[in-house]
Specification:
6 helices; alpha/beta; binds zinc ion; 251 residues
């Protein structure tokens, strides 16, 4: 599998960090995980064939994680010749169908019926969903009522993405011994809120999960004013990366 970070930022505007979006190649599946504003721009900048995306998985319904979804659906209809005919799977927590219906009410019926099949799956945590020969699964995390973390497994390799989350040890247990643990690292301890993680909390989760690589993302500007790696290393001794837009790893 290959993971490309499209957006390592948040809704706090940044010239270098776009809103949340990640692109994963897993066998034949071309998966966009979250789709915040700036995603279509980053896909173009990084030369990723956005027309080939097969699945879009949303972690939760905050704007910084889904606003470019209508733009992408529109691009597949009007931004390529010939227009898309292949189906796309859109996956998310309970409430996804309602969200898409609201987007259709705002923008037009094409959101749900763009001329190619849009298959909507509300993924119940723990049930699993095949994406080609890869398996997607979810874990409920504390952030919004619907928010989920995701896991993608293929050929004995596994990546876990926290989405946005507050501190939860169940995430560490669920992610145990994964290859890449992609954790949100939103705020420094001085600005901590229960809906997000601090570097110290990321370290506590990683120390329990024991991933091959801890990758930190979803950085608000204030957390970049502290020495994130030094704070993490007080508790967690394994490899850690603070990712940036365009960061790529092969799993
Ligand atoms: Zn967010
Ligand atoms: Zn959020």
């Amino acid at each position: 599998m290959q993971l490309t970070v499209l957006g390592s930022g948040t809704i706090a505007h940044s010239p270098t960090r776009s809103c949340a979006a990640y692109y994963l190649e897993a066998g034949d599946a071309r998966v966009l995980v979250d789709c915040g504003p700036g995603t279509v721009r980053r896909l173009a900048e990084l030369g990723i064939d956005w027309r080939a995306i097969t699945h879009v998985a949303l972690s939760h319904f905050h704007i910084d994680h889904h606003l470019d979804l209508p733009a992408l659906l529109f691009a597949w209809k009007y931004g390529q010749l010939p227009p898309r005919s292949a189906p796309v799977d859109i996956i998310g927590p309970a409430g996804l169908k309602s969200l898409l219906e609201k987007l259709a009410a705002a923008h037009g019926d094409w959101v749900l019926d763009p001329g190619y099949p849009v298959r909507i799956t509300e993924l119940a945590p723990g049930t699993g969903m095949p994406m080609g020969d890869a398996l997607l699964d979810g874990l409920k995390v504390p952030h919004t009522p619907e928010s989920m973390a995701y896991s993608v497994s293929r050929n004995g390799r596994r990546i876990v993405y926290s989405g946005d989350t507050g501190f939860i040890t169940a995430l560490a247990d669920w992610a145990r011994d994964c290859d890449v643990l992609l954790l949100e690292c939103s705020l420094p301890t001085s600005m901590a809120v229960v809906e997000h993680l601090t570097p110290e909390q990321c370290a506590t989760i990683a120390a329990r999960a024991n991933p091959r690589l801890l990758a930190l993302t979803h950085l608000y500007p204030p957390v970049e004013q502290v020495d994130i790696k030094a704070l993490v290393r007080e508790t967690y001794a394994g490899p850690v990366e603070i990712v940036h837009d365009g960061w790529v790893t092969t799993i």
